[in-house]
Write the structure tokens for this entry.
Amino acid sequence: MNNTEYIYNAFGVSQRASLLIEDAQRAVEDKFKEIEAIAEFNQLKVMRAFADNKVSERHFMPTTGYGYDDDGRDTLDKIYAQVFGAEDALVRHNWVNGSHTLATMLYGVLRPGDTMLAITGKPYDTLEEVIGIAGKDGNGSLKDFGVKYKELELINGDIDYENAEKILKTEKIRAVMIQRSKGYGWRPTYSAEKIGDIVKFVKSISPDTVCMVDNCYGEFADIYEPTDFGADLIAGSLIKNPGGGLAPTGGYIAGRRDLVELCSYRMTCVGIGRECGATLGFNRQAYQGLFMAPHTVLQALKAAILCASAFSILGFETDPAPNGERHDIIQSVKFGDKDKMIAFIQGIQKGAPIDSFVVPEPWDMPGYQDQVIMAAGAFIQGASIELSADAPIREPYIAYMQGGLTYESAKLGITVAVDNILKLDD
């Protein structure tokens, strides 16, 4: 028994699971090289933005109170704008998660009487109450403020262009919402270029319609971002890809300068916008997290590819396939069986660095319409760039795994999950 096998054995992992993982890894080595080239490009892009904006120690100094003239905060905004190919950006620690950041973008742009079209199907579960298609009336949703909502289901994973054209030609659509990642669905994640094609289609019919993108989980998975291809606004969370595993909280919005300004008014208040907001020592982690992000995303992508390879060997359908195109860090595995899905989630938790002794169970999680089971053994609570997995308790019982600060640690979690499935079948 070699040293690695000894450690796996200490985790209770069978030799059969270890050997299967090694086979799975060998099968995707060429794919690893492909994504390493993307990571190198993105790392250089971030380095160029740091150099162009002359980042130094002074940018890490904390501010308090109003936070006027916080050069570290303002320079970080400029760096994000440059990295994401946008006119302007906001990066703030006081956005508590991706849903909060996306809600700020929606409320910043939309006004009473406006209509928003979700062109990629129903948005992620936690936005349903924000929009007003779930939850109680009178809770402050967009619906309460007179914002109308339309939704188009995807056709075989692609946009329903025919009906989208009809709506855009016959109704005044203020904003189109595009979700880059699959959420709790089973469809392809869209590349930045694909989103650019959607934006071009919308603008060709309705030039004044604002195209907004939920960019969560997709940052640095490609060498381009949706704003490079004409998206008006994008938003995401710093405890996902762009925080690099170091940012302890926060979010970002990037895009057209006039629209970013509107979002800043919703973030604080009209007349103040981005001018206030003490950083309280957050800047160093935000800068260093962005610096680490291309490499950290590479680790998460390698973990996702390994997961796809291993569970394909076990006979499960995966999305993406092991050697398929990847435009975010999420790996879906369709189990078709509740017990196997739960065993997978519990295996990921057991292989995590934090709370490995905890056994996840389905529960009524705030903001979700179904019970959810979640593995989240992370240093930063809820950080999806760290190894995690979650699943709604509904057919066809699909689990969604993402993250991994290091490939080696994520590999352990995946190995334990494989072992759980093998033991369940015995």
Notes: The longest strand covers residues 88-92. The chain has a mean pLDDT of 95. The two ends are 24 Å apart (CA to CA). The first helix runs from residue 3 to 10.
